[in-house]
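2024-03-11 09:14:02 INFO queue: dequeued item W2 domain-containing protein, len=590
2024-03-11 09:14:02 INFO validating residues
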Amino acid sequence: LLYFDEPNMGIHLDPNVLGVVSSIQANMPATAVLASATLGAWEGLEPWWRGPSDANQITISMEPYELPMAKLAVFNEGTSEFTPLSPLNLFENYAEYQRVMEDYRLPTLLLRHLTGRQGNDLMEIQPPGGEWSKVQGDVKALRLAIEPLLTELDQKEFERLQSRWKTGEDAPTKVDGIRGALSKEGVTMVGCLDPRKIAFDLAGFGNQEAWIADVHKLNNKLKEAERMVKENAKAEKRKKKDDEDDAKDGDDGAVGIVTLRPMLKISLAEALEADINTLVMLSKGIAYACGSGTEPMVKRLYNQALLTVPDSLRGRSPPLNVLVVDYSSIYGTDCPAVDTLLLQEDLGRLLAWEDLQQFVGRLRRDGTAVFYSKKTARKAALGAAAEEEETKAVIEFQKSVEQAVLELEKAQKRSANDLGALVSSLSEASGRSTGEVAAYALVSVISFALSAPTHLDGAGVYPATIPEADKELLAAITKRIEAYGSSLESVLKKNSQQVRAIQALEALALSANPFMNRTGGARVLGIAAQLLKMLYDVDILSEDALFSWANARRKELLANSDGDARFFTKAKPFLTWLQEASDDEESDSE
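2024-03-11 09:14:37 INFO prediction written
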C-alpha cells in the first residue's frame, strides 16, 4: 500500500522533486492513496500520476463546507493601509464572476470568505437579528443554503453588493505598519522567503535605540539570574538553606530559569549560549522556522507554540503570538491558535494555487488571511488561470468596443443617444460595467488620431501617419474629442467611471494590457499631462476623479516598487498645477 500525503504540494518549484514524484508514481503498487484536497479529479490528472497499470479508482470527496471563515485582506506596505477584500471584490467584473461560478469547486471554496454581514446581505436579513451564522442550523447547512444565492447573482445585484462591500467594516483602514496587521488575540503566521530577517523586523530591530535598550534590560536580567544561581550554590555548600531560600532566584521562583515573557521560559544555560538579539526577538513573542539554520532553542519554542490551545489562554496573549515561516515550514505549522495569516509577496508570487490554498488552510479557526497584493489574493481564491483568462477576455472585449465605436464614427453617429445606447448594449452583452465600456470608448475616440490597429479596417477614419510634433498630435486628438461634444461626458458621469477612463489611457500610453504592441502608445505617453488637462478642460474628467486616480496610483506604486510609474510621472506637473489651483480657489472662498 502506498499512502502519498499531499503529493502535489510544491513539486513545480523543483525539477528534482518533480522527478522523484514521477518515479514514485511510475512504480507505485496496485493499491495507492493520493491524499490531497487540491489534486483534482482522477480522470483529469496527467498519465504519469496513474501508475504502471490500470486499477480500480475510488475518489473520496469531502466537500469543504465546514472550513473556518477566512476573511481576505490586502496590506499595502507603502501606505500601511489594510483593505478587506470581499469574495465579490476579488472579481474584476461580472463577466469574470460568471466564468468562475461555472467551476466545479471554486464557488464552494469562496463561501468560507463570506463574513456575517455579507451573509446577511445575501440572505436579505436585516439587522437587528444576529449574524447569519446564528440564524439557523450549523455552518454547513448555512453555507449550503447561501451557495445558490452567491452563485446566481444578476449583474445589477453583483455590482450593488460589490460597492456595498467596500464600505463600513470593509473599508480600508490605516494600521501601524505590518505589526498593525497582526492578530491581537491569537497567533499570526507570516509566510516569506527569509523568516529570520522578517522575524527581527517584526520584533522592532529597525529601531536600534529601543532595541539596544531592550538588549541592556535583558542582559541585566541574565546577570541577576546568574548572580542568584551562584548565591544559591554557595548556600547549598554552606547547607544553611531554609524553605525561603529555596525559592530565591531573582526571576520567578525557580533557580536557573529565565522568563522572557509571560508563559515563555528558558533555562539560564540556554539563555547564556543564545544570541542576545534572538532572545530579544523571542521576548517580543516572535519565533521563526525555516528549512535550515534555525537555532535549536528557537525550534523547540516554536514547536511548543504549535501546541497552544486558544481556550487555555483565557483572554491572555499567547507566549509566542507571531510565527514566521518559509515555504518548507508552512505545511508543518498546524497550530489551533492561528487566526491571522500574512503572506509576503516575495513568497506569494512563487506559489501555485494548491500551495496558496494550503496556506489559507493553516487557519484552524475563524480568522483573516492577509496578502501583500490583490493579484496574489485573486490567485489564491480564484486559481492561477484567473489572471490569464481575464487578460485574454479584456483584450477581446476592448477590440469589440473599438470595432463598435469605429462603426459609429463611419456612420457619423456621435450623439449622446447613439453612444449611450452603444455603451449600454455592450455592457449588458459582455457582463462588464458601463464605466469599463465607456472608458474604452474614450480611448477608441482618442485612437482615431493614431495609426489604425491591425485588427480594424480603419480606412477613412485613422490617419495615414501620426503627426510628428506633440503639439500637432494633441490638436488632432482634441479635434476628435470635440467632434463627440457632450456625448463622452454623458457616459462618463460618475467619479469611478472617469477613474477607469484614466486607467485605460495609462494602459494605452504604456502599451500595457489590453494595448500591447499598439502603435502610438509612446506618443500618448509624451503628452500625458497635456492630454489629461484637455480632457479636464472639456469636462470629461473632473478634479475629484483626477485626484482619486492619482492617490490610488501612488499607493499602488508604493506597494509595488517594480510598477511602471512613467505615466504617473508625466502627469505630475498637471496634477500639481491642479492641486495648487484648487488650494488657491479655497483660499479665495475663505
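2024-03-11 09:14:37 INFO annotate: The mean pLDDT is 86.
2024-03-11 09:14:38 INFO item closed
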